[in-house]
Amino acid sequence: MGDGDGWANCEAGHRHWGRYGAAGVLAYCMDPDPYILLQKRSRLSIGGGTWGLLGGARHSHENPVEAALREASEESTLDPATVHVQWLSREDHGGWSYDTVIGRLPSRADVRPQSFESAAVAWVPAGEVASQKLFPAFAEAWTRLCRSLYQMVLVVDVANVMGSRADGWWRDRRGAAERLRDEIAAVDGFDGVPGAVADLCYPRIVLVVEGAARGVDAVAGAEVVAAPGSGDDTIADLAAPRAPDEQRLVVTADRELRTRCETAGASVVGPRWLLEAIRRSCST
């Protein structure tokens, strides 16, 4: 038992499990179509006999991702290290919330029940989830959550973003690129992603550098690609999705490059979107 285990009431007068809210993991893999990892709740649990997500009460010291992965590993043999977290979707009930952490696994791992709360754990084709006997709250959320079974790759036109900042970047292009790299890598979830249904995105981040910034190294959470020639050509090439469950979002204000990226299949946002995400991250 942790300090989050217990009942709580929301502003609507409903009773929920989790004094500080609750969180669960919607784990999926492509094989080649999406499969969803579902838990059959035991008769000793709320909603026993129904299928839903691995998850439970969030403790006071945990963020939603930590809580969801911990609960999943307590209720099953799922290895949290194998879950590539991609999205977070929040249901706010007023004073109480449930966070669904959506993550991708590289394969349909052999996952088994590991606590009294789980009667079974199974991989179910995404197209067959709605036909199962589902936990009511999950059944209601599934029509929305199923639209987030993809990974986002954020491709950043570093030179263009630096050019939109009045911080003297031209005096030391490499140093300015390294500062921008570190700021982007430190953002704990991006909101306002075009076309997204979920609230927060945890993308794979790819920074494209050119000229004097070519010596910038990658860091944890941010890859760096040094353009051998034109940065625009490299970015346009990276704009094309590489996998069926992948989408790409390019950050640039260059109109011609925007057209090239959209033609390749990517969405495009301007530097202001990225800089606002950095500002919010720094202020928390």
Mean pLDDT level = 95
- Strand fraction equals 25-35%
DSSP strand count: 15
Structural class: alpha/beta
Shape: elongated
**Oligomeric state of this protein:** single chain
What low-confidence regions span 5 or more consecutive residues with pLDDT below 50?
A: none
Short recap of the structure:
By secondary structure, the chain is α/β, with parallel strands linked by helices. It has helices at 64-75, 136-145, 158-163, 173-185, 231-238, 255-264, 271-283; strands at 7-9, 15-17, 22-30, 34-41, 51-52, 54-57, 84-92, 97-104, 118-125, 151-157, 200-201, 204-209, 223-226, 246-251, 267-269. Strands 3, 4, 5, 6, 7, 8, 9 and 11 form an 8-stranded mixed β-sheet that branches. A 5-stranded parallel β-sheet has the order 13-12-10-14-15, sandwiched between helices. It has a two-stranded antiparallel sheet with strand order 1-2.
Question: Keyphrases for this structure?
Answer:
single chain; five-stranded parallel beta sheet; 284 residues; eight-stranded mixed beta sheet; alpha/beta; elongated
Q: Could you walk me through the main structural features you see in this protein, from its secondary elements to its overall organization?
A:
The chain has helices at residues 64-75, 136-145, 158-163, 173-185, 231-238, 255-264, 271-283, and strands at residues 7-9, 15-17, 22-30, 34-41, 51-52, 54-57, 84-92, 97-104, 118-125, 151-157, 200-201, 204-209, 223-226, 246-251, 267-269. It has 284 residues and is α/β, with parallel strands linked by helices. The two termini are 29 Å apart.
